User: Fold this.
Amino acid sequence: MDINTFSKLTYGVYIVGSGDKDKKNAFIATAVFQVTAIPEKIAIASNKDNYTTEFIQDKKAFSISVLKQNYTPLTMGNFGFRSGRSFNKFEKCNYILGEKTGVPIVLDDTMSWFECTVEQEMDLGTHILFVGKVVDCAIISEEETPLTYQYYHEVKKGVTHKNAPSYIDVNKNISKNKN
Assistant:
């Protein structure tokens, strides 16, 4: 099996958030996709170890902010490579609270957002798949290009976090394929 095949799947890059005005968190996500048009539903995959997963399960709601291609390193660093358990990701971030659910919606370096209520939850082993009904959404800027995972890797030279659904431990897969 050629594990490089997985790198041919296409992804966008998003910030998924949950919580409320007092306690909130968010993370960089690539496993975000629309599952139906009517009613409007979006699914996300969240690692069980992500602090935000606890907020989504408790609040039964989440937000998705679509990152723009020309994001700043601060945004990626805050939401992609630091844990909200020991760091306030929203301290120096522009955000709003969703009118329907109260979840935080990141505005920095984003071009649009969705506010969703959880309708289904599925345990996938390392991750949980949440299917959410879109209860509100808005475009911040139509003059931006959405960030793709390919652009993030090839142009920005970004790396994949170990909690990402697309993370492949090359050493583990090499030894597995030799047996």
